[in-house]
Each structure stands twice: as C-alpha cells, then as structure tokens.
Design a protein that fits this description.
Elements: H1 8-18, H2 26-31, H3 34-42, E1 47-53, H4 55-64, E2 76-82, E3 86-93, E4 99-106, E5 125-126, E6 135-137, E7 140-147, E8 152-156, E9 161-165, E10 168-173, E11 176-184, H5 194-208, E12 213-219, E13 225-233, E14 241-250, E15 255-264, H6 268-280, E16 283-284, E17 299-303, E18 307-312, E19 316-320, E20 327-331, E21 339-350, H7 353-370, H8 396-401, H9 403-406, H10 410-415, E22 422-432, E23 435-444, E24 447-454, E25 458-461, E26 466-477, H11 480-495, E27 498-499, H12 501-506, H13 508-527, H14 529-535, H15 541-555, E28 557-562, E29 567-572, H16 575-580, E30 592-593, H17 596-601, E31 605-606, H18 607-610
Parallel strand pairs: 29-31
Antiparallel strand pairs: 1-2, 2-3, 3-4, 5-7, 6-7, 7-8, 8-16, 9-10, 10-11, 11-15, 12-13, 13-14, 14-15, 17-18, 18-27, 19-20, 20-21, 21-26, 22-23, 23-24, 24-26, 25-26, 28-29, 28-30
Helix pairs in contact: 11-13, 11-14
Length: 612
C-alpha cells in the first residue's frame, strides 16, 4: 500500500539530492541523444526533471514505454522534459552513464489514464461501473474489486481471486499472488521501524522455508521502509521455484504496512509490473455514516454466575476475575469496534518514578540471586510490581492512558493470559457535574474504535507510589456517529448490570462501594446521553478540528484534499510544502490544504497509495 510511496515527499526531493554524488550529470548524458538535442533546440524553455529509479522501478517504467523495446532493465535515471505541446522521457543507465532510450511524444506522457472516483458499492465483486475503473498493464486488464464487508478496494484481473486471511488481503492466480497487510502496532512495538518489521518477517520466513534466500535488501535512510527480494521453493510443495518482493513500512508511531508479491522465478520479470500495480491500487473504503438508532439492535439477557446484565442481541459476553477486579464485556464479533465493558477495579499503576525504580532494582536483585524466572513479588503470593507502567500524573486521564502498557504486564498476563493487546488515547475530557467523561480513541489489535469512558474514584497510595482506579466503564463503536446511534442501547446495558447475591456475599467489602460506584457511573453516562446523541451534528466543530489536528500531530501526519476525486489523503508531516513546489513530480498535481469542515467530514485515505 504505502510501499513505493509512503515516504514520497522525501523521495521526490532527496533522490534529486543523490544526483550530485554520482559523479556524472544524467541530464548531460541524455542531451547526447540526437533526438533530445533536436527537441531542446525546438523547445528551449522545456522543463527538465531528473529522478533516480531503482532496478524494479526502472523495469516498470521501461515496460510502460513501448518505444524502448526490449531494453534490459537497469538502475537508471529517468529524465522527463516537457513544454505545453510536447513531452518526452529519457532513461540514462547509472553504471554505464549511457543513454538507454529516448521517447518524445505529443501530449501527455501517462500511458494509461488514472482510475476515476465514484464507484457504486457492490460488496465483494467487481464494481458495477467497472468499465470506468479498468486499467491495463501490458495486455492485461485490471478491474476494481470492492469488498464492503472487509472495507477495501483493489485492482485485479477478473479471473484472479481476492480474499482476506488473518487480516491481510491476498489477490491470487495459482502460485502468482500479491498481498497487502495493514497493521497497527501496539505496546513497545509502536516504536518499530519498517526495518524492524522487515527483519522480523525475514526471521519468520526463514524458519518456515529453510531454502529462503535473500537476493537484495534496500531500505530508506530513516529506516521507515525496507524492501527485500528473495528466492525460495513453493511452500505448497509444488516444486516450483518462486521469486518474491516483500516490503515493510512503519512510522515509529504504531502505523505499519506490509505488502509483497511473488511469482514463479521463470516469469517473475514478466509478472512484476502487474503485481506492483495490484499492490499499489489497494485502498480502504470509506464507511457509510450511520443515521439514527441502529435498526434491530435490541437487548437480551446475558452475564455469568457473578453478574447479570442486558447485552445487545448477537453480541458475545465475557466475564472474569472477582471482587474489586471483576470485569465484564460484551462484543459484536462481526464488528469488533462495538463494545461495552466495565472493570470493577484496575491497578496498581505507578505515579512515583522513584517507587517504580525501587521495584525494578528489587526485581533485578532477586533475579541475579535466584535466576531470571523469579516472580519478583514484593510480598509472597502477590503480583510483581517492577513492570507496572508509570503514569504521567495522578489524574484519571493519565491513568487511562497507561492502561495499554498495564495490560501487557506480567501481573495481568498471569491473571488474563488471553487478554488482547490494545492502544488507547484520551482525546478530550468533558465534565458532567463533578465527574469526567472522556472521549477516547482505541485500537483493538488493529481495529480502530472511538469511545466514551468514565471511571469512579482514583485512589493513590503515597506509601507505594501507586494508584488504583475503580468502576471503569467504556462504550465503543467504529465512528462518532455510530457511537451516537448505539449510545442509548449501550447505556441501558450498563444500567442493567446487577451483582448476584453469592458474589456480594463473597466480597463483603464490594457490597456498598462497588454497587454504588456502578450506579453512579451509569448515572454519569446517562446524563451525557443527550449531549452525545444531539451533539455530533455540527456541535463544537472547532473542538473536533482541534482534536483531529492534535491527533495528526502526535502521529506525525497531515492531510490534503483532492478536489478532482473529492477525497482526503493522510500524508507525512511536511509533505504539502514539498509537494506544492514540486507538483510536476506527481500524478495528482491539484492537491489542496484542508478547510476546517473537511477535517470532520472526510475519512482520510492513505496518501501513499493515491498520490502518484
């Protein structure tokens, strides 16, 4: 998806900077051509732009220009030149410094027109208006395939299959295939680079395929992108020797993507332009915004031996732990961003850095004496404290922001071995009476969600430097509009939560504090119901824009608008400034900066896939 283009604005400028270090001038080399000399004499004001192409890209470009015939692909400089009437392109070999091919044409250099926007959703089939979406690579026609359920679109030959396997999209024809795998990294892995992701995948592949042989590795200077070309035998056991390219991207903030393609080695060079086109065409589909309350969503009885509660019909109930750490959750497994959950109590989480450091040193001492598997409990039978997170402050917001790390500690993994990884970011806080309601963004192991959360008392302990949070409640959905529609039903679900008598009897300390906390938390959320339901239609748009821009800043991205396709793209910070002064390097040369309204009315697409 982002593979060729994820660091596009860097490439567009930095590659030009590479020219000076090569020891020769590709423009001068190209001018040695009689054709080009004549062109420049006739068009003295023609603009010339030089871009360095790696071997794979050179192959693709040479293939696009039929006039270049059967010229062997090499690492090359592509020199483009044009004026109003006439355009041209020349390829200069980097090693020999000789001209490979010159093409001069009337009109546009683009061999095939870009796909147009506006396909009607058909869900898992070629688009109804696929004629307007058809592109060609050589003599192969590709049509847009849309999968509404899994939320993506991609170009592919009509006879090829497309499926989603464990989160990645695979387009296949026999033992020739292309795959795209969007990832959301969590926990410490959020800091991973594209090189980190690529090296991990190489390790996995080498274990599965002992004959996996790397032919070349390329990486971006900032390690955000890594591309590996390798050869190996067909894992399916056909005996066919395959060649493949695997690319990995990560921005160091949790956003990652893996993509690749493979084909029999004997036909790989022939198939590669087609496979690259398929991978580059991948895009997420905009979700339709729900209006009003979701039809057919009704509550049914759910729960376990400790807790009973009403949950939306068709959702799955989970419950675990006991007394003050009791938790319940109901999830729509078909749309896993839709959830309601209640945690009786969570913690401890450090707020005192010195206290955490003492626990780390204590654990290191124990493990130095008794070995690396010592549980490091400060008190026998109690959970270890050394790897608990350190919150930024003694506030509910800081407590919530520390929960992703908390759920990956040894303590929680021992209590809840199947707990899924997630990321969480408190975006804004709204005060309702004496309580706070938090707008939160979640990522449930790669599934994004928005949420309303609130919690009961936050109780710090000055002696241990830790704090506990009680009665933590969350209502989540795929979008703000969906959350507004689901909110009344999910509120009823929380309000219906009832503790069984045996549970209360076995946890006497819980009887008053916990029950009252649940009641208060339900009341607090109920009081925000009107705000949530009525508020998303134009309410506090400025705050929404500030929130969106703040999130972009934290992720190191910005957004641009394409008026030709009526789409908004997410791009790296600084892209627009570089793009605006180098528009001629891009297929889409009409991008604009966003208006405030566009921040809240468009779901951003991946700019790396859409800005040529």
């Amino acid at each position: 998806m982002m593979l060729r283009k994820a660091f596009l604005f860097v490439v567009a400028l930095a590659l030009l900077g590479c020219i000076s270090g090569t020891g020769f001038d590709p423009v001068a080399a190209a001018k040695a051509s009689g054709q080009m000399q004549q062109f420049l004499q006739e068009h003295p004001d023609a603009k010339i732009v030089v871009v360095l192409l790696d071997e794979a890209k050179a192959k693709e470009k040479l293939t696009q220009y039929a006039e270049c015939g059967a010229v062997s692909a090499q690492t090359a400089y592509m020199v483009t030149f044009d004026d109003v009437q006439t355009k041209g392109v020349a390829f200069v070999d980097e090693k020999s410094q000789k001209l490979i091919c010159v093409v001069i044409r009337q009109g546009s250099l683009t061999p095939t027109p870009p796909a147009t926007a506006g396909a009607r959703p058909t869900g898992g089939t070629a688009s109804a208006d696929s004629a307007s979406k058809t592109q060609r690579v050589g003599n192969v026609a590709l049509s847009e395939y849309r999968d509404e359920k899994n939320g993506y679109r991609i170009l592919k030959p009509a006879s090829w299959t497309a499926e989603v396997i464990d989160g990645y999209v695979k387009v296949k024809d026999g033992n020739t295939d292309a795959l795209v795998w969007p990832l959301q990294l969590s926990g410490e892995n959020r800091k991973a680079t594209g090189v980190d992701v690529g090296n991990y995948l190489i390790g996995v592949l080498k274990k599965k395929m002992p004959d996996f042989r790397i032919e070349s590795i390329h990486q971006a200077p900032d390690k955000s992108v890594m591309q590996v070309t390798a050869a190996y035998a067909d894992p399916a056991g056909s005996g066919v020797q395959l060649k493949g390219v695997l690319s990995s991207f990560a921005d160091g903030s949790g956003n990652s993507l893996v993509a690749g393609y493979e084909a029999p080695a004997a036909v790989f060079d022939e198939k590669e332009p087609l496979l690259r086109k398929i991978v580059a065409s991948y895009a997420s589909l905009k979700r339709e915004k729900p209006t009003g309350r979701f039809p057919g969503l009704k509550l049914v009885q759910g729960g376990d031996a400790d807790v009973s509660m009403l949950i939306p019909e068709g959702w799955t109930f989970y419950g675990g732990s006991s007394c003050t750490t009791k938790f319940v959750q109901a999830v729509d497994l078909d749309h896993q961003a839709r959830r309601v959950f209640v945690y009786g109590g969570l913690g401890p989480i450090y707020f005192d850095a010195a206290a955490k450091q003492r626990a780390v040193e204590y654990c290191n001492g124990l493990r130095a004496i008794y070995g690396p598997t010592h549980p490091c409990s400060l008190v026998p039978g109690q959970p270890p404290m050394h790897d608990l997170p350190l919150a930024a402050s003694v506030t509910k917001e800081a407590f919530l922001n520390a929960l992703p790390e908390y759920f990956q500690t040894e303590m929680i993994r021992s209590i809840l071995p199947g707990a899924e990884p997630f990321d969480l970011e408190v975006v804004s806080t709204e005060r309702v009476g004496s309580d706070e309601v938090f707008d939160v963004r979640f990522d449930f192991n790669g599934i994004p969600a928005v949420a309303k959360m609130t919690m009961g008392p936050l109780m710090p302990d000055a002696v241990t430097g830790t704090m506990y949070g009680y009665s933590i409640v969350g209502l989540t959905a795929e979008s703000k509009e969906e959350l507004a529609a689901l909110y009344p039903t999910l509120i009823q679900s929380v309000e219906s939560l009832t503790l069984s008598q045996p549970f209360i009897s076995s946890c006497q300390e819980l009887q008053n504090a916990q029950a009252k906390a649940y009641a208060q938390i339900s009341k607090t959320l109920s009081e925000t119901s009107d705000v949530v339901i009525k508020g998303y239609e134009g309410r506090q748009q400025q705050l929404d824009v500030v929130s969106e821009k703040g999130s972009d800043a934290r992720l190191g991205v910005e957004r641009v608008y394409n008026p030709d396709n009526d789409e908004v793209y997410e791009v790296p910070n600084g892209f627009y400034q570089a793009y605006d002064s180098n528009r001629e390097l891009f297929q889409k040369s009409n991008l604009q900066q966003l208006t405030p309204e566009q921040y809240t009315t468009y779901a951003p697409l991946n700019g790396a896939l859409h800005i040529g």
